[in-house]
Design goal:
The chain has three helices and three strands. With 103 residues, the chain is mainly alpha-helical. The chain has helices at residues 28-37, 40-83, 86-102; strands at residues 2-5, 13-17, 21-23. Strand 2 and strand 3 (21-23) form a beta hairpin. The longest helix has 44 residues, at 40-83.
Length: 103
């Protein structure tokens, strides 16, 4: 049996069993119905959607950052290959890699 906060924010802790269903203590079902009627479920859904959208935005930002860093790394590597020795190329590549990892 697991205990969960209904809608993650209602404050009503419900006992859930995968095999046997949900158990409500005294007044829990009434409190859940009141929570839903007061718009709590809709508000919880809106909050969850906003959190998902924010997570998607963060992932897009991180992906663009990684793509840009990889592009910069390749540009640095190409420039170094044309103008420097193998040792300098290795140093520049290490610098670019550290920048990628630390930014």
């Amino acid at each position: 049996m697991n205990r969960i906060n209904f809608a993650r924010c209602s404050g009503v802790i419900v006992d859930i069993c995968k095999g046997h269903g949900s158990w409500f203590d005294h007044e829990e079902l009434t409190r859940i119905v009141e929570f839903i009627r007061a718009g709590g479920l809709d508000a919880a859904r809106a909050k969850e959607k906003a959190a998902i959208e924010e997570e998607r935005r963060q992932l897009r930002h991180e992906q663009l950052s990684v793509d840009g860093s990889l592009s910069s790394l390749l540009d640095i590597r190409a420039a170094d290959d044309h103008h420097t020795t193998g040792v300098t190329t290795g140093i520049a590549s290490a610098r670019a890699l550290l920048k990628l990892l630390l930014d």
